[in-house]
């Protein structure tokens, strides 16, 4: 994450897995630099997420998915010491929303888990996908697969649940650290991006609907 003001707030040691980086000299690396330059220049986030003229949509989406994965990891890392089996025995976003885990290997049926267990499985699951060369190709000229955007929608929907849990259950900790402005900026960036390209169903956004209306409109 090259954004300097976020570096000051989030202790990198608390990120609980290595960041996925882009290889210098690749188109993805250049797009990443372009996206970061827009943010660092203070460009309106609604404009910053728009696809640059002449660029490929899948490349632009891939760059942002990896970036959001890294950023959300950092955010969760800041409150991870307070999100425990005891404090958060259920992965939820308040009393109305409970998130159950399901995957292709170990949890074939939706399963109730504690928030830290859910988060750990989620980050492993996303990391495996963004490091999967067939789904997120890095070699120049290798096309994205047909299932790329459906896979991305699922990744982003699940990443959104981290924001939900952090905002509803751990915002006091974020405020205590003086990090709320930076977390809000990350959230707005994420929200404008998924809305720009229709990457999350409206019903998934319901838990933070009122907060988002105040923050993003």
UniProtKB/TrEMBL annotation:
Cross-referenced SMART domains: Mob1_phocein (SM01388)
UniProt keyword terms in alphabetical order: Metal-binding, Zinc
Gene3D superfamilies: MOB kinase activator
InterPro entries in the record: MOB_kinase_act_fam, MOB_kinase_act_sf
Positions annotated to bind Zn(2+): 83, 88, 165, 170
Pfam families in UniProt: Mob1_phocein
Record keyword Zinc present: yes
Keyword Zinc: yes
Name of the protein in question: MOB kinase activator 3A
Species this protein is from: Suricata suricatta
